[in-house]
């Protein structure tokens, strides 16, 4: 038996759930989990995630996709179907801070993140030992603000990953790079967006005297720290928390937000809608 | 147009969602929201909540129920169908502490809780003025541990309420009373169950030196502080929080947990299962 | 016996605590609680709050203040001394939303906020009944964006209050008004500052698709939603939370943040420092 | 310059702070941070933590201790003085679960925990590689419920550590072992104490249907899961969280609670009082 996941979005209309569940039943499958969301009961937008278990001897992903094409056409929907057994390749980009990197590597090795890690790319060579400990290929690309070395980077990641995670990668990508890569990129921003965009958000938070700090995992767009938010984590702070304490607490929030976002992504729980996300 | 809510539970099996959504489609209705849960993908138990919008001129609650009976029979399911427009009668019982009482009355008056409040019953006469301010009938029944006056109470609440809320009512009901009342009763316990059952949980928490306190809203059974949990709220405390501070912070947690539980109940989001709840 | 509270700030230097505690001992008093904070161990700024219990037959506030003047001069400090028994007059300004107003009134009546409430002023006449229920003088001043009626307001509040609370008052004050009033004003902003300043922060939060919402209590300055932050409260949200749900959850956060800020203020726990606060 | 930390507890009485701060001033030192707590303004117990910076050429720890002895005698206090530069030796004991172990090792290597780690002892040999990666001596002692090998363990840890951390060590120590070791032992319990003592607390939490789970770091006594609580962390859960999800969320809470407790311990922020802790 094999689990498949369907993500579907379309204009809200009668009969979607009936048709989708009929499709699943026709293929001898059983629904394991289903979530749906409608933005507005009157003429809104409809989102659905269904996980179902089918006999893979009888149905493979390609044939299910083919069969579903005509169903989706009825509702004029955008959709995709995934085989939960297929393991995605998650490329990691990271600058010097290592807390998110080691967290992802640990969660991967302990089996909590079911993913392949084809590479760790860094503009900080010091991570080589860590990557080797975890037996993950490591590439040092000395990118910096003056030379982001995007062509070199693209050549490395393009055919080698299904999505990228920026586990505290300090450089912004050009719109051209994003377009050429063409797949999802998840970033962790060490601040509570939309506050504190840009550099050193903990310093900004300290100067502003906020009583709560946060971290934000989001999809990357060509706007700095502006893509659809996937996960946010927050914690109370006080005047007793100096800069080092904010950084320390923040590191934990960053790990939580990023691993939460990656986990949702790997479970195909995220649907992008305009500048926001539905995370089922 | 009218919203209906179906709650269904049965042994997990193929085709449930297809059949239910087909039923809804046949009645010309549109699914507004749907949640489901399966305890175990292999031979587990299935739970479902569906909210759908139908033309009430064509279908009323009674006819929908009649029509659904045969559907449910196929799956050997326990179910109920509700008309979201029907307003439930929530009876309130309360002893001297007034914070949950006033919170419920406020939420009701401000329209956040769509409910009727047929009565406030108390063994503390001092709440009369408050009830009158909110124009809710008030009954003083001087029950205490020696004489719980359950017959008097039952006569008052039996035909007059769809469910009861114990908004800090300090007396335990007998199994006989619970059986005779026969409907749901929601209690707020001022502690983090299953810790700190019984009397003065804040004193227990202080003596134990816990660093987090909580409040628990749960269904009442004939076991003290033991029924299925609906909502729990928690907050960090420290040695700086003395007994008064615990009580003050706890009051807020109690209000949050109880209003959250009542809101879920009024939206028909709660399904009881053994000694636990599914809260969609 | 009587409790006094000393708030002191000065350049950090040796011997401050020794001198202050010696002062307290000389007056036969016992320290009940003491907090201090230094921004930087090397040449930073020093903040202190001490609560001590003295025999008020022997020492009244005026004589203690006189005696402390020479102590403070040694350290070139800014300071104040308060008698904890003196009850502050908290004036409330509020527009149509009533949740913070009723929360403050309830906390006051239940004894949790030890304060006098000399008036509720509103540009919404509908609160008159509520104020009367709590036996608090109510004044309707039909201020709006075109005519903020600040002179009328000032005449009402100037000699009649020790500080003001804007319990969701929708109008911004002019710098002139703030200067003429000359005392502290605490505002509740229904957003997580510094995000979402200005109008309808819940709409902004929804459009941005944030996964956490917040509320911020802060001192009022002549910059809109920019004064020193006193308390912030946050809660996770998801795509399931529509605008109404954000408002509902937000109301609770607003009540929590505002009552927390007012409680700290009444306990003389807040020291302003540049654009931030130390809240002991 | 050198930072020292004084922990003091005694019966509350006048003049303690004055005398202690005078002592610090006499030694030419400056108070960096001070916290105090009184259980009851009338005849309670007094607790104090003071961190001060002194010239270590003039005063070393031994002479400061000698000088303070007579001060403490005045108040009949229990106290200790620490040199913040002295680095404690933290021995780690761990069974098969590795998440707390790797978190402690990571925090140590990244400089967040200023501590020596003289050994990792485990009854699971599989951790050897991890310990070696971090260049920490590893000892495999195949203890189990039938043979806890306490003598062997004691021989290893007795002269080699200043305190022990049980980073998910599954065996209970005998009172004899605790007495012979004679120093502090910090344990992480994977449940919200005092609920869910003993084995498999996540299973207990699942069966009980709680809506919040927790983890508790506490000092070890000879009562199972009963020592003074140092830190507790909590997170909301729902019916969607199956056993694996509880374990996963719980792991994070365990890491947070344990590292928080260790950090407080290393900063000499914890004073034990009866069965509770004051954590400044």
Written account of the structure:
The first copy, chain A, folds into 2 domains: 2-83, Alpha-Beta Plaits, CATH 3.30.70.260; 90-279, Rossmann fold. The first copy, chain A, is 32% helix and 28% strand. The first copy, chain A, has 8 helices and 13 strands. Chain A has a 7-stranded mixed sheet with strand order 7-6-5-8-9-10-11. In chain A, β6 (120-122), α4 and β7 form a beta-alpha-beta unit. The first copy, chain A, is globular and about 60 Å long. The two termini of chain A are 24 Å apart. The A-D interface holds A 98-99, 102, 106, 110, 112, 133, 248, 252, 256 and D 98-99, 102, 106, 110, 112, 133, 248, 252, 256.
Predict the CATH topology of the largest domain in chain A.
Rossmann fold
Strand element count of chain A: 13
- The CATH superfamily of the largest domain in chain A is identified as Formyl transferase, N-terminal domain
Oligomer: homotetramer
CATH architecture of the largest domain in chain A: 3-Layer(aba) Sandwich
String of helices and strands of chain A:
EHEEHEEHEHEHEHEHEEHEE
Helix content of chain A: 25-40%
Indicate the overall shape of chain A: globular
| Low-pLDDT residue spans of chain A | none
Strand order of the largest sheet of chain A: 7-6-5-8-9-10-11
Q: Tell me about the biggest sheet of chain A?
A: 7 strands, mixed
The SS-based structural class of chain A is: alpha/beta
Helix count of chain A equals 8
Whole-number average pLDDT of chain A?
Answer: 94
Radius of gyration of chain A: 21 Å
**What is the CATH C-level name of the largest domain in chain A?**
Alpha Beta
How far apart the termini of chain A lie comes to 24 Å
Beta-strand residue fraction of chain A: 25-35%
Structural domain tally of chain A: 2
Biggest interface, chains and residue tallies: A-C, 29 and 29 residues
